Amino acid sequence: MSKLLLNLRHVPDDEIADVRAMLEANRIEFYETLPSRWGISHGGIWVTDDGDIATAKRLMAEYQAERQARARAEHAAAVRDGTADTFATVLRREPLRVALTVLAILGMLGLVALIPVLLMRH
Q1: Which of 18, 42, 46, 98 is most buried per CB count within 10 Å?
Q2: Does residue 69 sit in helix, strand or coil?
Q3: What is the pTM of this model?
């Protein structure tokens, strides 16, 4: 019975390609499901053979650890170089998005504070 190895929700294309290549290099049979038309399912990569699941999960854990280390190193380099995003750079680049996000947060905080008061009145 096939087992899901990777849910493709919010997975970048380069990571999907890396996982495909990793599975093919290790001769692990897999197939992919496509995202649903209505956005309910985002697709996935499934391992076909039950005997390969442990190996695939081990390889996936190693790959993700390497990818995490690489991403952290790239971020650290960007911080050292001064090219990493900061709140100020995001505010300058996308002021409307920042303003709407702040308003949404304030609205949610207002609701969290107001709902108990309204519920206790009745």
Answers
A1: 46
A2: helix
A3: 0.71
